[in-house]
Amino acid sequence: VNQYFGKWERGNVPTFTYPMPERAAKQAVALVDRSSSVQSVINLTQPVAMKIGDPDYISSRVLNQILGGGSASRLFMNLREDKGYTYGAYSSIGADKLVATISASASVRTEVTDSAVYEFIHEIRTLVDEGVTEDELQKAKAELAGSFGRSLESPSTVANFALNIERYNLPKDYYATYLQKLNALTVEDINATAKRLIDPDKFIITTVGNGSEIKEKLAQFGEVIEYDNMGQPAKQLVADADMTAEKVLDTYLNAIGGKEKVAQIKTAKISMDANVMGTALNISFVYDSENNRYAQKQSVGGNVLIKTKIENGKGSMTMQGQNQEMQPAQYEEAVLNSFLFPEAVYAKMGYSLTFDGLKDVDGTPAYKVIISTPAGAKLTNYYAQDSGLKIKYENPASGDTFYSDYQEKEGVLLPMAWTIKSPMIPVPLEAKVTSMELNGPVTEADLD
């Protein structure tokens, strides 16, 4: 370092001061509504002043290990092993020169969201009020000691330790005596750290999930404040008092050309092109409403990756050449997507409609309508308040689709641009309609 940088002249390094984030005056819930979610992502958090070398630093590592540091922790054993709410529940107690956080998190099924939050709070409160056991302490020490030893095999870890000694003005033997300090900790030390660091009544409970299903249930834990996916307060829009799901769908059908024009479209073949991180993708749809037939294909370089087909009252899915018949629940969900203008057949198919108010969709006020099949499959559509056009579709399995660039085709408006946000692809997919044939013949070859 001296050889290469020793002749550099020291400059004036700017300094900054930041206000220390304060803990909430009382517990509250921050909710991000994502209607298509079948899970809720939960994170309980509060700020904490903690940096490496603080008196509570090493004891906080032990405390966190017992609370949610691994598969033998209290959170994991409760929420996964005992309750079966999640695949894993964990916690962390951070360390930072400015400010850190204490957090606990898990992804759980929508229907157990409130129960999971209750168990999180219960475990945190029990830890603070009743403390840890000697057995838990010894196991946590063994796990942390083993992890510390293994980390020394990495040169980057050793280098980082050296940097920390300088950055945090630690004693030169801080890491050399780390295991001694760890092993010297007692149950009383850990319990005192828990009481100093954690306030069970002042967590912000951030939850991302289906707001219509979980909002009311979460109110028992504090005021529920809604945010958008950018962390800004959600716009609170109010729909007309007499608005219904049926009126929203009627307005949509009139906006795209009217029920008579829609009814005249019997078949459609649509091809769309998109690009996924440099790879060309083609998505094609075939609709045959008169014969209750439907097909969708996703292809790369002419090779079909995924194909969905509905015909003769049955459905099948083919992935990479492997064909599988749909189970009843899969078939019900596929049928929901098998109509070019599903709004025209919801009543005929016996689907129930739920009006869920006026929502903000990327700056556009839109009416939210939830469609449910008799078997329980659901999807959600959003219709722009001003134009009546459908601008967003949510599906728990396939993700979110945004519609734009409506153009008139045979007297009916159809979206020529789709933005697809799917859990199966890493980035939003921008798809453009490249060809569309309406009321043409549909052959078996088209479906295959």
- Radius of gyration (CA) equals 28 Å
Mean pLDDT: 93
Q: Which oligomeric form is depicted?
A: single chain
CATH class of the largest domain: Alpha Beta
Topology, element by element:
Blueprint lengths: L1 H4 L22 E6 L5 E10 L8 H12 L5 H9 L6 E5 L6 E10 L3 H18 L3 H18 L3 H13 L10 H6 L3 H11 L6 E6 L1 H8 L4 E5 L17 H11 L3 H5 L3 E10 L2 E10 L4 E8 L2 E9 L2 E6 L2 E4 L2 H9 L15 E10 L2 E9 L5 E7 L5 E6 L3 E11 L2 E10 L7 E10 L5 H4 L1
Parallel strand pairs: 1-5, 1-6
Antiparallel strand pairs: 2-4, 2-5, 3-4, 7-8, 7-19, 8-9, 9-10, 10-11, 11-12, 13-14, 14-15, 15-16, 16-17, 17-18, 18-19
Structure explained in plain terms:
- The protein has 448 residues and is of the alpha+beta class.
- The protein folds into two domains: 21-227, Metalloenzyme, LuxS/M16 peptidase-like (Cytochrome Bc1 Complex, Chain A, domain 1); 245-447, outer membrane lipoprotein receptor (LolB), chain A, CATH 2.50.20.
- It is built from 13 helices and 19 strands.
- It has a 13-stranded antiparallel sheet, with helices on one face.
- Helix 2 (57-68) crosses helix 5, helix 2 (57-68) crosses helix 8 (187-197) and helix 3 packs antiparallel against helix 4.
- The termini are far apart.
Nutshell version of this structure?
Helices cover about 30% and strands about 35% of the residues.
Quick tags:
alpha+beta; 448 residues; 13-stranded antiparallel sheet; Cytochrome Bc1 Complex, Chain A, domain 1; elongated; six-stranded mixed sheet; 13 helices; outer membrane lipoprotein receptor (LolB), chain A
